[in-house]
Amino acid sequence: MTNLAPENVTTRAAPGAITLYKFVFLHYLCYAFQIVLIPNSLFSGEFTLNTVDTQNSDPCTTDVAASRIFVTNAETKNAKDQNATCAAENGRPLVIKTVEQLQAAQVAVKYNGVSLFTQGSCAWLTATLTSDKVLQWPDKTNVTQCLKTPDIVMNPTNQLYSLLSENGKFVGIWSPAFKEFPVLCYK
Fold it and tell me: What is the pairing mode between strands 161-165 and 35-39?
């Protein structure tokens, strides 16, 4: 008696099963091209291929869709309250990396921001001025690294915090500010 199937019997893997050949091949792809396999469901054998670039990640990539950007109803004078203010409305402070995000943020600020003299409506941003006088996001990406030519109004230059105006300008301000502003967030 042998464990081999008779010659007249056809063997097939169950639907959704990964054969040894597929497993070895997918394992090789993952290793060679730094690909992560994500199961489509826990019970199917189907996988989605997602590439991961661990060495050359683009600091300007983001998974925040423009449609998820909003301005909080609550307002604060203190730039350091942004996390809590966004969290209270089930959001997180916005870091603008794309033109689409900037445009969506401008619209949100236009209709829900607070007026700041000649700048129009404004809302808090998480970008701060570094000691080298560079406007930078909390992830250490310079604002101008991803947004090629934003209009940055930082006068006087010792203002450490920023607001976004409805016109797309990054406006410098001290914190605590002289009045309350809402916060730009995303869900």
Answer: unpaired
